[in-house]
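sorry to bug you again but im stuck and you know this stuff better than me. what follows is a protein written twice so to speak, once as letters and once as structure tokens for the fold. mainly i need to know what kind of three dimensional shape the backbone takes. anything you notice is useful, everything is just below:
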Amino acid sequence: MEEKKEIVFANGLNFNPPSQNAPEYIIGRLWFKVDDFKAFLDEHNTNNGGVNVDIKKSAKGNYYCALNTWKPTKPAGLEDAPQEEVDNSNVPF
């Protein structure tokens, strides 16, 4: 059974669905509380300089923004596989 992870809310970031009068191409609206969101980004910045945030809908129908903590895993046995060297000397550019 999958372990239930704690939700890390994206502090300083709010998502609202479009108003009833919004054009069809408007999906929603993001609102940033700059100082809070900067602190959130600084705390959760990954080693590649980014933060993934998901927009989710609760069981009660409310929208919220949460840190995406998914990390890819290597299939078993690939960690120790030697990397093949490629000869690029005949590439025309």
